[in-house]
Amino acid sequence: MVEPSAVQVAVIVALFSSVLLSSAMNSTEDFNASNLQRPEAGLCAQLIEPSGFPCSEHKTLTKDGFILGIQRVSSNSGNFRRQRGPPVLLIHGLFVAGDAWFLDTPNQSLGFILANRDFDVWVGNVRGTRWSQSHVSLSEKDREFWDWSWQELALYDLTEMIRYVYSVTNSRVFIVGHSQGTIISLAAFTQPDIVEMVGAAALLCPITYLKHITARLPLKLVKMHLDQVMLEMGIHRLNFKSDWGTLIMDVMCNGHVDCEDLLTSVTGKNCWFNSSRIDFYLEYEPHPSSTKNLNHLFQMIREGTFAMYDYGMWKNLKHYGQLKPPKFDLSRIPSSLPLWMGYGGNDALADVTDLQHTLKELQSKPDLLYLENYGHLDFLLSTRSKEDVYDRMLAYFNSLGTYSYD
């Protein structure tokens, strides 16, 4: 493993020293700012119901004590006697939450489109995000509250959300995931007790391997070992709406990365991204995550593996009974599970080469949609995603023959 240079460490330490000094002068400032941003109303009242869609708030509890917020959305047709279609659980990506599926107009946003096609839409929000920031015994101020990575999101959060929707609807759940939502979905599907509750999955920008990413900013952060330094400095929560989060980006952009187009440096070129609504997007995004989660993702880039969190040899022995973390075996995903995947040639995170690696390990051959000029965000926040992506996804669901969605 290549260690960060002395100059890089000095820059990072100086940055965090100034932040920690400021925090010491007013140790509650960051948390108070976060609390002030927290909405009194839930996602339903803030974003979904104002567009005319019936929505209800639900809560469920993970095995490790996190209280997750889930929303259920219905068609705005006003015909409440009309039978709901199959349940669909939407699983968001990193630094966003369930609101990401509703940020464009009802004719463009996948959450609204599914509801108007009479799907029984359920909106997932993983721990730490704005709509899932509670625990039975821990506070956001506690280090332990942020002691998790996408491994827990897969094996605890997604597991519990699927179980909850399955128990309420008495029906197998369709999964739609984007980016990190596909990482945790595919990891969860390797577990027999989870996948038996799933009817089908549509994965946008699917990721299991990150060895060949070309995104400039993440690669720079990986090279600087920023994730490891942050953990050593005791920074366990990533909140880019806080003062220190903004400062990190300012330092990184000063001479390291051209951040005039920050999205491109993170995700690659997005040809159809709806840039006219950026100010509205930023009212909701980004959401917090944990430094350990970022560390786990960076481990995937450094090591080229799709595996559980690497604690180091001796701690791995304690956690897993072996020196290296166990891999998530994609061949364990049953061939009977219908899979649909949409991916793009401009995606600097969900690289085509890494996807080919994934496809070789699966038992089944998923239905694939390749759009050469699509980037990572084009599949989620795009002026053309309905015609190019969502209509084709719905056609695939329709082809399964179990339901009719027209």
From TrEMBL:
GO terms for molecular function: hydrolase activity, acting on ester bonds. One of its GO terms (biological process) is lipid catabolic process. It holds the Pfam family Abhydro_lipase. Residues 1-24 form the signal peptide. InterPro entries: AB_hydrolase_fold, AB_hydrolase_lipase, Lipase_euk. Residues 45-103 form the Partial AB-hydrolase lipase domain. Gene3D superfamilies: alpha/beta hydrolase. The active site is at 179 (nucleophile), 347 (charge relay system), 376 (charge relay system). The keyword Glycoprotein applies. Keywords: Glycoprotein, Hydrolase, Lipid degradation, Lipid metabolism, Signal. PANTHER family: LYSOSOMAL ACID LIPASE-RELATED. Belongs to the AB hydrolase superfamily. Lipase family. This is Lipase. It comes from Fraxinus pennsylvanica.
